[in-house]
Write a structure and sequence with these properties.
The chain is α/β, with parallel strands linked by helices. The protein contains 4 helices and 6 strands, in the order H-E-E-H-E-H-E-H-E-E. It has a single domain, classed as RbsD-like domain (RbsD-like fold, 3-Layer(aba) Sandwich). The chain is globular and about 40 Å long. It is an enzyme of class 5 (isomerase).
Length: about 130
């Protein structure tokens, strides 16, 4: 059995396979996910797990170059993302949906706050 890191086998596999500039989206309960992208649905109930909890786990293993969020995002969410990485790209929610659905995977959380959606662009460790 694995001792540390991400225990969800699908997320662990995606993170391990990511190269520089590959993307993984972590989204709220209501985010529309295309049938053409790998969907990892973690929702147990409203708010469970939160987007913040999932992101914290992923960031233990993934180097981030930048984060893409929607301009409709709240100040609370923007502030949360800036604590992770100062390099933030802001796009329309429509554009965010397109980018997310062209990512390696979209991870659906139980998050219920509107526009709590982020795309993490993989960096390099050297």
């Amino acid at each position: 059995m694995k001792k540390t890191g991400i225990f969800n086998s699908e997320i662990s596999s995606i993170v391990a396979s990511m190269g520089h500039t590959d993307k993984i989206a972590v989204v709220d309960m209501g985010f529309p996910i295309s049938n053409n992208v790998k969907k990892i649905d973690l929702v147990v109930d409203k708010g469970i797990p939160s987007l913040e909890e999932v992101v914290k786990s992923i960031l233990k293993e993934l180097s981030i170059e930048k984060i893409i969020i929607a301009k409709e995002s709240s100040e609370e969410f923007i502030s949360m993302m800036k604590k992770i990485n100062k390099n933030i790209e802001i796009v329309s929610h429509e554009e965010l949906k397109k980018i997310a659905n062209n990512s390696k995977a979209v991870v659906r959380t139980g998050e219920v706050k509107p526009y709590f959606n982020a795309i993490f662009v993989s960096g390099v460790i050297f």
